[in-house]
Design brief:
With 202 residues, the protein is mostly helical. The protein is built from six helices and two strands; from the N terminus they run βααααααβ. The chain has one domain (5-191). The chain has helices at residues 8-27, 34-59, 63-97, 107-145, 148-162, 167-186, and strands at 5-6, 190-191. A two-stranded antiparallel sheet has the order 1-2. Helix 1 (8-27) runs antiparallel to helix 6, helix 2 (34-59) packs antiparallel against helix 3 and helix 4 (107-145) runs antiparallel to helix 5. The chain is elongated, with a radius of gyration of 21 Å. The model has no long low-confidence stretch (mean pLDDT 82).
Length: 202
């Protein structure tokens, strides 16, 4: 039982971090402010990570922190590798076109197309894997705290990632971000006896 576990500071950090992540992520598409907003999102992510680490330490369960960290590492490293493949593929195709040959006649062209396709597939795969780990983090938070909005965050985040290739996916990701803010806002300042573990909602 978690009797009298004070998570006031973690609640505040998670709430502020979630707001910063949302603002930085969606406002960052505006030219000239995207660099600042990208840094804002990173700060928000760190605050959420610190909040999850604190909650995990106090409750003796590091799953939220661990999964959230895995999500970032997989996405960060995977996207860098995928972008490298995409750039190599694009450069190879460009080099072949400079040789004044028809498409696929030059070996570099065929190689470039293959690498480019692989890069895009890898990009999508690592993003989905990263979102899967984040989904696990929020489901673990629901189990530990009983705040149902964490479960809603996980659900909308997952469906948003799977449908991100179409515009509706971006809307679902926005909904997930809003639920994340609500979830931290609804966290009690202190976990009382009986709030130990909740079964996930189906």
């Amino acid at each position: 039982m978690y009797v009298g576990v004070d998570i006031r500071s973690e609640r505040t950090l998670g709430l502020i971090g979630s707001v910063l992540t949302l603002v930085g992520g969606f406002v960052g598409v505006i030219p000239y402010v995207r660099v600042f907003m990208g840094a804002l999102s990173l700060v928000g992510w760190v605050l959420v990570l610190v909040a999850l680490n604190g909650i995990g330490n106090k409750l003796g369960d590091d799953r939220p922190f661990k999964y959230y960290l895995y999500s970032f590492l997989v996405a960060f490293v995977g996207v860098i590798v995928a972008v490298i493949f995409i750039v190599v593929g694009a450069v190879s195709i460009s080099s072949a076109s400079m040789a004044d040959m028809s498409p696929f006649e030059h070996p570099w062209s065929t190689f470039g197309v293959g690498v480019l396709i692989f890069g895009f597939i890898l990009f999508i795969a690592v993003l989905i894997l990263g979102v899967y780990f984040e989904k696990q983090a929020w489901e673990a938070m629901y189990e530990l705290t009983g705040v149902k909005e964490f479960h809603e965050t996980a659900k909308w985040l997952w469906w948003g990632a799977l449908t991100a290739i179409i515009l509706v996916g971006l809307l679902l990701l926005l909904i997930a971000s809003i639920y994340q803010i609500i979830a931290f806002a609804n966290l009690p300042e202190e976990l009382e006896e009986g709030v130990e573990k909740f079964n996930p909602i189906v």
